[in-house]
Amino acid sequence: MKPVADHGLVEHSHVGGRDVGIGSHTGRVGSIDPADHPVPTGKEEEWRFTPLRRLRGIHDETPLTGVAGTDFEIEIDAPEVVGTVSLGGAAAESMKGLTGYQPVDRVSARAWACSSEVFLVDVPANTELTEPVRVTVRGLSVENAIATHLVIRVGHHARAQVVVDYVGSATLAENVEIIVGDGATLLYASQHDWAADTVHLSHHRILVGRDATVKHAALTFGGDLVRIVASATYAGTGGDAELLGLYFADAGQHLEHRLLMDHEVANCKSRALYKGALQGKGAHTVWVGDVLIRATGFGTDTYETNRNLLLTEGSRADSVPNLEIETGEIAGAGHASATGRFDDEQLFYFLSRGIPESVARRLVVRGFFGEVLSKIGIESVVEHANDVVERELAITGI
């Protein structure tokens, strides 16, 4: 099948070149103290697309005092060989920051300070899991805002799959830290199937070990406002990180994905591929992809792509790819961004062969998402995503 036309496509690559477009990352200072992070006003670059009035104050002073068992539940289903534990007190504090991350905005810092427990999934070294570890975060109330901290640790030369499901209703500020040891492989997927009243802001930090491979997939469908910020950095040469995203926004939803690929270590690779569909008045998606190749990131190989499909009038997709390159000694770097409507040529192709228009439109959307789904590598996640896409298409009768 011919791919969806890349209307508005802006694509270029850099080999031995320099493209400065991020600016703020090199000078940004992290801190676990919320007082070090001013309350966002919406004028800041990192907040300019986010409707702050819909955050229920978790970016300001709203207490993050939701209680486990009353306002939310976290369940972990894993083989016996995998360590799963809820840590409190000094043990919890010792687990925070294992990726080297320190919060870079007020919401993340507040979540860090207010999460009294750390939920740990610990895959031992040299372990090979045949089934995914499943973590379910279930919101029970939107009235009391909650803060959580999840740590996924995969030992060296282990192979694992981890799926995190978000369901129910919540007002949630969250930090997720993912540590992948040397030579290990991790397939990670977060599925955001929230109820329509949920507000969820999350920071995902990925530390990729030497010669380790990570696939991180964010599948975002539910919620009133969901904002996922993912960043990846490397602990040794030969690391390979692939960030994938699939999202489908309905009327009134705001779904925002931001990412930073931080190449400070030489000879590492990164890829990013995010695709989204939008339908209904006021549906809004945001994708901001930042790649920072520092002066020590010799031999970096990176590429990022975002594509959006507008299914109805009244929806809006913002897409901003950025590159900042501090060395000319790289293998390659590039980005592509495209937003458009149905390709009339594709529809005509199907219709001319007797396929009804409603079926043809479904086939186009399935093909559009197929590239992302084929890369995720977790069968149950792919099946669920296909089911959700079918459900979403039924909303507009496509």
UniProtKB/TrEMBL annotation:
| Annotated region described as Disordered, given as residue ranges | 14-43
Its family remark reads: Belongs to the iron-sulfur cluster assembly SufBD family.
Q: Which domain of life does this protein belong to? A: Bacteria
Know the name of this protein? Fe-S cluster assembly protein SufD
A biological process term (GO) from this entry: iron-sulfur cluster assembly
Q: Which InterPro entries match?
A: Fe-S_cluster_assembly_SufBD, SUF_FeS_clus_asmbl_SufBD_core, SUF_FeS_clus_asmbl_SufBD_sf, SUF_FeS_clus_asmbl_SufD
> Residue limits of the SUF system FeS cluster assembly SufBD core domain?
144-368
One Pfam entry name: SUFBD_core
